[in-house]
Amino acid sequence: MTYLNYIDGQWVPAQSGRTIENRNPANTADLIGTFPDSSADDAARAVAAARRAFDSWRLVPAPKRAEILFKAAQIIADRKETFARDMTREMGKVLDETRGDVQEAIDMTYFLAGEGRRLHGQTAPSELRDKFAMSIRQPVGVCALITPWNFPMAIPSWKIIPALVCGNTVVLKPSELTPLSALHFVKVLEEAGVPPGVVNMVTGGPAVGETLTTHPDVSVVSFTGSTAVGKLVNQNCAPHFKKVHLEMGGKNAIMILDDAVLELALEGCLWGGFGTTGQRCTAASRVIIHEKVHDRFVEQFIERAKALRVGDGLDPQMQVGPSISEKQLEKVMGYVEIGKQEGATVACGGRRLTGAAHANGFFHEPTIFTGVTRSMRIAREEIFGPVVSVIKCASLDEAVSIGNDVVYGLSASIYTQDINRAFQAMRDLYTGIFYVNAPTIGAEVHLPFGGTKATGNGHREAGLASLDVFSEWKSIYVDFSGKLQRAQID
Prior knowledge:
- By secondary structure, this protein is of the alpha/beta class.
- It has 14 helices and 21 strands.
- The protein has helices at 40-57, 62-78, 80-91, 95-113, 154-165, 179-192, 206-214, 227-237, 262-274, 294-306, 326-342, 396-404, 419-428, 466-469, and strands spanning 5-7, 10-12, 19-24, 27-36, 122-125, 131-139, 142-146, 169-173, 199-201, 218-224, 243-247, 253-256, 286-290, 345-348, 367-370, 387-393, 408-409, 411-415, 433-436, 452-453, 471-479.
- The protein has a seven-stranded mixed sheet, with helices on both faces. Strands 9-8-7-10-11 form a five-stranded parallel sheet, with helices on both faces.
- Helix 2 runs antiparallel to helix 4 (95-113), helix 2 crosses helix 6 and helix 3 (80-91) packs antiparallel against helix 6 (179-192).
- The termini are far apart.
């Protein structure tokens, strides 16, 4: 099929007529469709449509906006299996995971639609007589949303839904690698009754992104992707003082202490390290293990990793899918070579899979490095693939020190039966997310999502914290005294 951009309530091609192919990373012979390779002009048209629509959409009562979003959530729920299968074809992760991705979009839409009858501000007593003080949220304007390929429906929902419920209009630029899932989400919003111009979608590459981040009529930019691109987004937005939300990389650690339930920790490391083929910003790419249980754990970890079934995510027997692209696979393979050169040991995996079942896709073996030190690049840099570095430690203090010794601060976890050590770790790990006796993945929609240091710029997605990205506070004072009152002076 040939798919189109969505601008001002119409499905239209790129003005240039150029297109981008969308192919299955598990089988590149499977052409899913072609999508517009849009230009700066297409992006500017979408921004203009969103700007026009803002004047009327912001005046729609928030409970009425929410009613549309509740309807959208139900439509997605009704089509969950279809959307999940399409997502597996274009993104590669196994069906259980794409079903979870769609479910997260459902959950997020239901949860934040509920804010249409809240959007709470505050009331406070005034310091003067016959004066009323309160605060309210107000929409910001046109929001440019730039989303990645690894959660191609969930992450658009994290951004679009809070933006809409607050009364903003949006222009979505999904990843060129996974536009179909984003298109499904936008079509649902159209069907649910979102007015023309309120939601717009433009597919394409850097020209679209640059326009959205520099256009003077864009008030908010919300970006999820690499730290390197996030820096460019921040620089583009600075001259116009745009509100910028950045959600970027991670190098997350699971700490396993000597009193941990090793079978539970083993399951967590397999899921955290190799779920989504390691292509999560929260992936557990570092496992820090106490020396007393290191050898026993590593032996089992290697055995279980070797047994993981890698293949086409549409096959229900598969546990690990492909990398998203040849470029991403080459990056993974490059880091494997870096690890070898640094002196780490490839305990299992380490190779591209090229047999008959893998010949047309971007598959890599689940890979475990042992003998890793904290200074090695494979222990410090985000790989975004099925590669886990195992690091030995002698104490909780050393584990925490290693965990914090990276530029990122997204997620971390600890496996222990000692509640005192668990609380010490959750206090001392400088991350935005922390788990006890669970891996570094598994965030829920009603709590804030995001990280510290080079992972983000202080904002959060999900939960009520997402409303702060897409609204501004206004403090209001009503003086009914009938005379001038000069605040602190009087």
